[in-house]
Amino acid sequence: MRFKHLSAIILVSLASSSAIANDETASQLAEPKIANTYINDKILPPSIEWHGKSEALLLSADDEWATPFEQNGLKTSPNYDDTFIWLDKLIAQTDKLKKVSLGKSPQGRDIWMIVASAEGAETPEALAENNKPSVLVQAGIHSGEIDGKDAGMMLLRDLVLGGKGDLLDKANLLFVPIFSVDGHERSTQYNRVNQRGPINMGWRTTANNLNLNRDYAKADTLEMQHMLHAINEWQPNLYIDVHVTDGIDYQYDMTFGYNLPQGLSPASYAWLEKIYRPAIESALTSQGHIPGPLIFAIDNTDITKGMSLWNASPRYSNGYGDARHLPTILIENHSLKPYKQRVLGTYVMLEATLKTLGMQATKLKSAIKQDKFRYPPRVTLTWKEAQQKQGWDFKGIEYRMEKSVISGNDIVRWTGVPKLYPNLPVVGDTVPDISVTRPSAYYIPPQWTEVIERLQIHGIRMTRLHQPTEIKLQRYELSEPKFRSKDYEGRQMVEAEVRLESVETELASGTVKIDTHQPLGDLAILLLEPQSPDSLLQWGFFNPIFTRTEYIENYAVEPLATQMLKDDPKLQLAFDKALKDEEFAADPKARLRWFYKRSPYYDDQYQKYPVLRQK
């Protein structure tokens, strides 16, 4: 089938590319051309008019197979129903595409995944039989950031009807057009005020007002539970999470990254950094885009302070991928670039991903296997900042500071004029802080059903004891719990001081055992070690252990304390020593509590972490 391409745009693109090649300096100094496309254009920094070779990917609006994005002036994105009406029409043309529901959202919408393979596989088992690597691409985890949906629809069309079907000869594509389906339908032109299109954008959070890209570790949302189940069932070799960023203005339109070499998947990192990034950046550059690493300024009002290198924890997609050894790429398109530019850049990146994955599958699979069975003897839970040896020649945008009559503060005014900031400092969380020795196993008492269920959702292997078992283990005693003053993502988070002690205990029948020598053993450690920032303890799954439910009256503890001192001379010495603390000595309740804690009546499970470790 032949398509009616936008030939005028192609000519403009080629002319523009030639001008840039002939006179790069003039291009850098060109006055920005102000767009007037979106309702918020007047309050955003100026938009530089863009043309690139990737415009040749577009079909004319009246073409039979133009996507809704192409039909409506490259400024809109279709709603949920129109998205799948168009996709269903495409799927009906081929055996290569299958539509699979990952499950229902809280408001009852299907979270659809399109399975694209040369063999037309529609089950995980059938897909595995073709022995090709698979990439799972999800769009709309924040549903206002929907570039990936429209790019993916164009790519699927071209895989089927546009002569690009050979991309499926060596790789499979699993494509989720809309992850946060309920948030997607909470759509108006007034969402995402910092973003330049599409005209109508979905909401950042789910119908329950939860952020899916904070939910990977705790897996509270129904949507995330469906996604984790899909990852376990379909076993992709690569995972791409498409976002649109906020923050400062700069020249890059496509930025992307992944976790660091210091993390839990160093072999996968090496593949991403040495093989994947060069291939993708080359493809984007050749099509007129400006790719770069993820961008997080240390100070949005002073670019010269440098950039922050992000080491994500498992609540985020890329941090979760690092923990479970699934190479995960976070795409952050630049919100101030026009929607057309961002969609086309995403298309180029996804197409180049399929090519690279197909050609480099053996090396990627080898890297994943190395990471899954590495079993480091120590696991880092938290990291400290350090300035990196390598600086960054940053392709920024010129700006000036102005005194605001509205706020009274100095504010940034971006000019739209490109400016290079040479050798900016880069600071990253790359120095190990809190680390633990790797236990051989964890044991979870059977009453902690919610915790066990979440670990099962992640796909972590476990067994159960079928009879009571006496065993010597390690247990954390917690103290000084500090609860967040406000709920975060629907939970009351908590941190506590820890002390590890050896205990001989009897484990009840039904106790769950989790061996850490398994592919998801590192993930289990980050979820179960109490000092891990995304541990289930810190997310509040174990908050009942911080509640005292039995007490002793003063009239009982007084004679009890007298008898205890009489029976134990060493206790008297310890009490005398404690009284040297003037604050303690002046606090009658503290003095009585001191005896109660040392009596046989005290709750021996209070602030004792119920998950036990085996050396």
Automatic annotation (TrEMBL):
Any one GO molecular function term: zinc ion binding
Active-site residues (renumbered): E332
Swiss-Prot/TrEMBL GO biological process terms: proteolysis
Cofactor or coenzyme needed: Zn(2+)
Cited SMART domains: Zn_pept
Keyword Nucleus: no
Any one of the GO CC terms: extracellular space
Ranges of residues in domain Peptidase M14: 76-361
Protein name listed in UniProt: Zinc carboxypeptidase
Species in which this protein is naturally found: Shewanella psychrophila
